[in-house]
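User: My advisor asked me to double-check a structure prediction for Galactose-binding like protein before group meeting. I don't want to rely on an old file, so could you generate it fresh from this sequence?
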Amino acid sequence: KEISALASWTVTSAKPGCGIPQLRNSSTSLFWQSDGPQPHCLNIHFFKLVEICGMRIFLDFEQDESYTPTKIQFLAGMGYNDLQMFGEMAFEQPRGWIDVDFSGKGAVPILRAFLVQVKIVENHQNGKDTHLRGLQIFAKDKAAAPSTRRLRDEVVGQNSSRDSVKVPKRASFSRGLAMPQWSTVPELR
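Assistant: Sure, here is a fresh prediction for Galactose-binding like protein from the sequence you gave:
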């Protein structure tokens, strides 16, 4: 599901009438336009630790020409002091929605962070200001996935009917101690 609305958005600079409300609008005819020296940064600060499984941006070279980014860096962390780059993308003449490359974030398929920063480093034709027409951040929808309890009950039922072995309903998949409640991943509401 799209979780961009769960965050506070800030930019390093913006032209009047071309700020965060225009970038967050569902229409890609509106855009954020920076107004200052490069790099241009868009900071997306979540109020809870989130597990991001995808991001995409909307760029349009045909409409924006020299305002189109050619190099964007993506950083994430718990705050401004520990941001680490997890991806960098270069563009020739982009047009449309582009999925952000998550290959630099390591073996874990989920990016966990409080803060995501989009840093526009270069523009086409050495343009000073930039246009970004859309940005969306996605997390897995845990409400749509089967619950752990239901899954456990199904497995327990399969085991007992197949092997004729009675397995208590409270059986756990993990061996040893149960995971404490405080260490579980928070649920976004």
